[in-house]
């Protein structure tokens, strides 16, 4: 099965990137520091996608983002030549932008599609590891080959001949969200109301509800926390330190060196309150 990994990101911009980490919004960083933190995260995520070697790497960025600035950042990745395409979304809500990211790849399920399956990865999950993406692809392949996967694909695509069945996998993050989602081109799934809905349903709950409604074979992979608010920042620092140590003894661990370097530059450390006696 031909897979692609799409890193879904905004082009970093001062005053518009990770604002909930800034002092103005109750955080601890300046706008410039928040920008640098995100750039470190994004570089590490892209490097993991390249290292995973389980799909072509593409970047989907916001339609009004600075493409020239993005290219300068991509030149700092481990191997720019492995990013085979960079494309802009069409704007709109987060749901609509995410939908375009996958529609662009699947081309209405036609023969000109760019891949049979897609993994969409957020740019703010610096603890992500190559083996997590590899596991996602394995599960997509296994689920899509199942009887239920083929039956759902046939119902969705209106043909009895489908080499790739339906499948959906996700990697959860905090607060009922997800940071990685993958599915095949025959999967009857869309992002409508996933992130924005009047009922207040969490994004992860919406994935589950859509999978149940359409009988989509569903799998989970290791959770990868994102960094949106100060508590996320405090939580991720010890995680990255643990990865740095574990990498001494496990060659499969990819150290998020760019993010760690930014934390070190700004002297960011994590602490907790002592228990009350």
Strand order of the largest sheet: 3-2-1-4-6-5-7
Overall number of strands: 7
Find the CATH superfamily.
Spore Coat Polysaccharide Biosynthesis Protein SpsA, Chain A
Rg, nearest Å: 19 Å
Number of continuous helical runs: 8
CATH class value: Alpha Beta
| N-to-C span | 57 Å
Mean pLDDT metric: 95
Shape: globular
Q: Please tell me the CATH architecture by its name.
A: Alpha-Beta Complex
Percentage beta strand: 5-15%
Q: How many domains, in number, for the residues?
A: 1
String of helices and strands:
EHEHEHEHHEEHEHH
CATH topology: Spore Coat Polysaccharide Biosynthesis Protein SpsA, Chain A
Largest sheet properties? 7 strands, mixed
Helix fraction?
25-40%
Low-confidence stretches: none
Structural class: alpha/beta
Could you please describe the fold and organization of this structure?
- This protein is of the alpha/beta class and 277 residues long.
- It has one domain (3-266): Alpha-Beta Complex (Spore Coat Polysaccharide Biosynthesis Protein SpsA, Chain A), CATH 3.90.550.10.
- The chain has 8 helices and 7 strands, in the order βαβαβαβααββαβαα.
- A hairpin with a 5-residue loop joins strand 5 (168-172) and strand 6.
- Helix 1 (31-52) packs across helix 4 (130-144).
- The radius of gyration is 19 Å and the shape is globular.
- The termini are far apart.
- The mean pLDDT is 95.
